[in-house]
Amino acid sequence: MTESGLEQRLPGHPAVTECVVVEGEQVIAYVVVGETGRLTKFLTELVPRRRLPDVVAVVPALPRTPEGEIDVAALPLPVAEGPRPEGGKGGGAAAGSGSLVVGGTLLFGFLAFATTNVFWPYSTDLSGVPLPWAALFFGLYLFECLSFGLGVMVLLRGRSALARRGRSASLTTAAWLALAWLLLAWWPQDNFYRLAAKTDWPQQAALVYAFNVTLMIAAAVLVAFVSGRRR
């Protein structure tokens, strides 16, 4: 059952013949109606206003897989959005969310860059590296910090976007954390490696298992998420 329970309750409307509710950045209720009725009024009487869908998309039929299950990925994007009663997310929600992700990535990336020498003194010291190699390594440090910033934003906001893929809750959570780790890990990993002695085998082994192996596991989790069956 979806968090709001709409998918089980919407068929109670006499005009609704079929429906599916997709919960992600927005809650979208896809409904097949025999005739247009006072569906909005019905919804406001059905669930609390805070649980109303952001968009009610009327479609002629719900797409299905060869096995007869609802194909969530094939559902069309709504071409028009009506406002949620008493205010709701407008058409600019997606743009606002994208700006927030970009802004957060830059903010946390800058914080990572600014604190690198606090956590790992001299790990990014390029004073003995000649050009153009020094510039290339400096660019690498910037990319690592931006990747960390994006990873923080995925950790803060990414699960709802993955939930729209229709996988199980446990697999969605695992994929969310795996994707965040794939982005977060590069900043601490490379700084630890740069300061580790090449012949310090205990430290090298610890770094390999803490980062390399966990990154492989994270990639495997994402493969399972992409190839898994929808609920």
From TrEMBL:
Q: Which SUPFAM superfamilies match?
A: Acetyl-CoA synthetase-like
Question: Keyword set for this entry?
Answer: Membrane, Transmembrane, Transmembrane helix
Boundaries of each AMP-binding enzyme C-terminal domain copy? 6-68
Task: Please list every transmembrane segment annotated in the UniProt record, as residue ranges.
Answer: 93-113, 133-156, 168-187, 207-226
Protein's recorded name: AMP-binding enzyme C-terminal domain-containing protein
Species for this entry: Nonomuraea angiospora
